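Design request, tokens follow.
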């Protein structure tokens, strides 16, 4: 293996990409391509209720339209439960897993602080159940991993210094749900680790996930990748752009603008260009630098898209 960076783009094929997904994909691509690195594509389709192969196919076409090529597509998560099972077993052999029988309403009723990613702090209710207590439950448990009382530090390429102590910030977290589905944190750690990913670039809503993934990396023998959690996109009037803005998903954008216009608006908003201009991803790779991708918000002149 060379020392070239390996990045990844890991979309959820549950609909059309919106502008925020495009921006994360663009920065992931620029970061590796500007340094002669590689990009891996992976479909995060653990939620088989919402995801569809036809959406995955449209996603590949949208990336091609944007000029964001990749070197390899790895197996989608929906087909990897056998692999995740092996890593789950290793955690169990280490004595780090325990069954949690709490119901959803129990988990949400304890005066638990709500984390930014939608999870609740878990106070360790089921950590020390005896086998007799476990035997009284008839339902299938979720499985949690015990977390250590230590600080995890991320020197994020976009957000700078970030740290968290899992013991006080989220508590023991679920790695397999009661229905047998392995959770995002475990799947991402295994997939990135096995693919040899050296940098993880994604939206900043996932920054709080990084310490949980770093913990699992350290347990499962994977190197920590570099992290870059890119800022959220805002309209020029200060509103957060989201999936609800239908005129900003690629279905609409591909009919009403060009890839060069779109990339130019994103690049100018991010500060990668001095003035508004049309530009291809390839041209932009020549001037890309992480120094410009800072902060939590980027303001876009969306009117300039059309
Ligand atoms: Zn529990």
């Amino acid at each position: 293996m060379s020392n070239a960076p390996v990045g990844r783009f890991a979309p959820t094929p549950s609909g059309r990409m919106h502008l925020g997904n495009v921006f994360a994909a663009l920065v992931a691509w620029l970061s590796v391509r500007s340094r002669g690195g590689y990009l891996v594509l992976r479909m995060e389709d653990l939620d088989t209720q919402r995801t569809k192969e036809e959406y995955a196919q449209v996603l590949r076409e949208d990336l091609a339209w944007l000029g964001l090529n990749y070197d390899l597509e790895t197996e989608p998560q929906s087909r990897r439960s056998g692999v995740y099972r092996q890593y789950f077993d290793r955690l169990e052999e280490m004595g780090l897993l325990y069954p949690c029988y709490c119901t959803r309403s129990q988990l949400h009723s304890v005066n638990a602080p709500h984390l930014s990613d939608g999870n609740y702090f878990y106070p360790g209710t089921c950590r020390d159940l005896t086998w007799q207590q476990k035997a009284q439950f008839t339902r299938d448990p979720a499985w949690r991993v015990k977390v250590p009382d230590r600080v995890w530090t991320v020197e994020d390429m976009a957000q700078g210094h970030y740290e968290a102590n899992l013991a006080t910030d989220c508590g023991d977290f679920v790695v397999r749900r009661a229905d047998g589905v392995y959770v995002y944190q475990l799947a991402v750690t295994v997939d990135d680790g096995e693919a040899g990913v050296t940098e993880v670039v994604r939206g900043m809503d996932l920054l709080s996930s990084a310490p949980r993934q770093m913990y699992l990396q350290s347990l499962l023998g994977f190197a920590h990748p570099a992290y870059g959690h890119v800022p959220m996109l805002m309209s020029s009037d200060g509103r957060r752009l989201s999936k609800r803005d239908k005129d900003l998903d690629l279905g609409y954008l591909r009919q009403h603008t060009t890839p060069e216009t779109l990339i130019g608006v994103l690049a100018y908003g991010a500060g990668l260009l001095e003035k508004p201009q049309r530009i291809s991803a390839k041209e932009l790779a020549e001037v890309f630098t992480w120094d410009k991708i800072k902060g939590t918000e980027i303001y876009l002149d969306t009117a300039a898209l059309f």
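Comment from the thread starter after seeing the answer: thanks! The chain is about 35% helix and 15% strand.
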